[in-house]
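Entry type: protein chain
Record version: 2
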Amino acid sequence: MSQATQQHSDPIPIVSNVILHAFDWSYQRITEQAELIAQLGYRSVLVSPAMKSLNLPSGTKWWQRYQPQDYRLIDNPLGDTFDFKRMVERLTELNIWVYVDVVFNHMANESDIRADLEYPNQWDREDYAKDPEKYEALTLFGDLSEPLFTENDFVEAFGIENWNDKWEVQNGRISGGPHDPGLPTLADNEHVIAQQRAYLKALKAVGVKGFRIDAAKHMSLEHLEKVWDEEITHDIHIFGEIITDGGATKEEYETFLSPYLQETKLGAYDFPLFNTLYQALEGEGSLTSLIDPYIYGMALSPLRAITFATTHDIPNNQVFQDLVMSEENEWLAYAYLFGRDGGIPLIYSEHEISGFKNTEGKPRWKDEWCSKRMTQLIGFYHEMYGETQTQVEASDEHLVFARGDRGLVAINKSDHNIEVNVAVKADIVWLEHISQTYHAPQQGNLRFFIPAKSYLLFSR
């Protein structure tokens, strides 16, 4: 499935993998788009948390999916257990793996309607009892007549104030401020672990092939290791979300990400590489920083990295919105991520959630996933998979690297064209994928111009 699965015994066979993050898409819409997803070259689809989650009378919001009420059934505005199973079945028919975003750090904040910590709440349990046939059919595992969690399954309530204090971050409540009671944090106890493992086993039985661990930064390594043991990780691709503001030597990296990488075999979002990309493209940084960021601790191991140009948190949380790249720079970032050797690219897609618009005034990330440019990048990524990456030339403003003797990637962030001459075999004609033009070497050199604020992808 992916290089990251090499960490476990009997892994799914390694092939090139591109993940579509169908953020807050309904299961039915994913099912309807399944054939197109497969045709475009995506090998996996990451779906929003699949469980019973907060559904407010005032309307449905994406963040409600990250406030669980019950693991034992799927019932939320994106669909129910039946819709989910149909989606998995259809994607599996097309050889597309389903990854599920898993929220295990906390449960829903229902402090406005009750003072207790029983999940699901008494009204939801009464609904179960009123229509047992319906809810039994939706059940993934367990006994719905009993609460999933009670007061004893939560740690003492307090809000996180010092976000660099590991104990506080991994025990305190995620909240919106001093007047928000926050999300009740689950304890690392035998019952919690058993329920979380039962949920994962149930999803695996349905056909799920991967998990994203939401808020992994907020969970202790001991908790993670008890849940994600060999039985759960077998034949499954798993990666955690541990947000950091940079790579090695940064306090967040050393406090949270480094121990996770050292003490588990799981994959992770490559926030160090994202920050390197952001500084190189949006800041005053140089594209030379992208030559081999891993050796400087500015990117994760290629075997464990989930790479991205944006995630759902960046445009949808005000605290991260200054990390949204310009459209043109985001495409340069994608060219680098799809062109390089290492990591599994994740493509973010939303409807109209964040409010960001593209240059045409349309929702920024609604149709990017199926655009011609994205399809070209995905095709190039699969074509070059497994080819070694070697540096050709670089400056503050441009970067050129080769993929074996079969491909070339050229990126230019400046506002002027840049001429490049690359020594190649004289008898080979090269196809440039973006313009769909052919280039013949002259006297052993391939000569071309990288347009301003653009990229080129060549293959033999």
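Comment: The chain has a mean pLDDT of 94.
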